[in-house]
Design goal:
The chain contains 11 helices and 5 strands, in the order αααββααβααββαααα. It has 2 domains: 3-68, Orthogonal Bundle (Arc Repressor Mutant, subunit A), CATH 1.10.10.10; 81-202, Arc Repressor Mutant, subunit A (Orthogonal Bundle). The protein starts with a helix and ends in a 30-residue tail after the last helix. By secondary structure, it is mainly α. The model is unreliable at 181-228 (pLDDT under 50). Helices cover 45% and strands 11% of the residues. Strand 1 (55-60) and strand 2 (63-68) form a beta hairpin. It has helices at 3-16, 23-30, 34-48, 73-83, 91-103, 108-115, 120-128, 151-157, 168-179, 193-196, 199-202, and strands spanning 55-60, 63-68, 106-107, 132-137, 145-149.
């Protein structure tokens, strides 16, 4: 395999992979030494760094993955938004979505503790709209269901993966843009997302990798009585 064929093969594998492709995986797939493959990877990364390319090959999480370049994120989000009709979300649903996105995987009782209200009805709405999905059960008493953001969430917000989540201060504006500023987000009281979701609780939390495991249950109930806000 010559240098051109090697880089083309690496490009195809990285494009097709759902998760970052590691050097070991790439070398094994090509049947070549890791030093040779690493050299080809460096050349591939450099080639995609050109301003004439809209995507890049980025070293992330111990492997290599393709991303859209930051300067094109706005146009990509507009394109993705144009493919889907706007969602109608209440402010409680938007606030709950923010908690799940930044603290995932998280249980319904944990969401309710952060927001101060029973979030089970809103969680059901987000499941119905496919913005979140189940992520197994937490290994604690009662084994409550864990929730995480879905691929539909990433698509709606024009994100390649969770590493591209914006800061909490940017999230509300991004959500209104992605879900529809006027027609997509239901009218709400003058209460900002950051006031509803305390920054000291969520700010700077690490974004974990997607959890494994699935569950068919739709939602779980909090372990103690709380005021309910109903469905979104």
């Amino acid at each position: 395999m010559d240098s051109t064929d090697r880089k083309a093969a690496l490009e195809a594998i990285i494009y097709a992979a759902d998760e970052p492709a590691t050097l070991d995986q790439l070398a094994a797939s090509l049947g070549e030494e890791k030093l040779v493959v690493q050299s080809a990877l460096d050349e591939l990364v450099a080639a995609y760094a050109s301003d004439s390319r809209g995507i890049e090959v980025r070293a992330v999480a111990g492997g290599y993955k393709m991303y859209t370049k930051p300067q094109h994120h706005d146009v990509v989000r507009r394109f993705i938004k144009s493919l889907r009709p706007p969602l109608r979300l209440s402010m409680p649903a938007l606030e709950t979505l923010a908690v799940i996105a930044y603290k995932q995987p998280v249980t319904a009782p944990e969401i309710s503790d952060i927001r101060g209200v029973n979030a089970s009805g809103v969680i059901s709405t987000l499941l119905d709209k496919k913005l979140i999905t189940t992520a197994g059960r937490k290994e604690v008493m009662g084994r409550p269901i864990l929730y995480k953001s879905s691929k539909e969430f990433l698509m709606r917000f024009g994100l390649s993966d969770l590493d591209e989540l914006p800061s909490l201060k940017e999230f509300e504006a991004l959500a209104r843009e992605a879900l529809g500023t006027d027609e997509g987000v239901a009218p709400a009281p003058d209460e900002s997302l950051l006031e509803a979701v305390p920054a000291d609780t969520l700010e700077n939390l690490p974004i974990p990798e997607d959890s494994t495991g699935t569950s068919n249950a739709a939602n779980s109930q909090p372990s103690h009585p709380e005021p309910s806000e109903g469905s979104a």
